[in-house]
Amino acid sequence: xxxLMESGGGLVQPGGALRLSCTASGFTFNNYVxxxxxxxxxxxxxxxxxxxGTEGRTYYADSVQxxxxxxxxxxxNTLWLQMNSVRDDDTxxxxxxxxxxxxxxxxxxxxWGRGTLVTVSS
Amino acid sequence: xxxxxxxxxxxxxxGDTATLSCRASQDVSxxxxxxxxxxxxxxxxxxxxxSVRAPGLPPRFSGSGSGTEFTLTITSLQSEDIADYxxxxxxxxxxxxxxxxxxxxxx
Lengths: 122, 107
What we know:
Chain A is mainly β. Chain A is about 0% helix and about 50% strand.
């Protein structure tokens, strides 16, 4: 079955850290630039970060640049998001997402996980 | 690039047609996708390249537009269409931004 499954969300204090994981199955993981997309309550989705297969080239939204780190292990079909120095406005459901095409850019996403909730609060 | 959707809320009677709009602050050609998000679920890709339906999507969903103005039209509205709808551009380089959404309700 083609699916993505996130884990690792929870409650974290401002300034703290959290590591999210995403396990993929049913497609050739290495061929795709994988992404994290988040959605704050009542808001539209926001692309957070992406990482290419093989080279591991990374891309970040300005809002998380320097605080979050995306990584992957293609042998384990796993994607991670290390969240450091978290802020209140990082509170959101975090989705792992696969783009429709095996391209370096032009990402639009045809497979999403169910999401994992991250709540930043003291 | 800022994506602006209108209206924020839309109430339509069963069987009628819903028309959702999305405007880009810059020309994005036809690099535009539409997503449906039902309550408690992840977004689902409906339309890409402005007008191409994702596999399995019924033809009562259609997309149109290019440049900066785009439309998602849903005909013969059904209760299962109750959802939030988002547009996303994927023109040139990231960040590929989403709109704030239109909440579709059934009268």
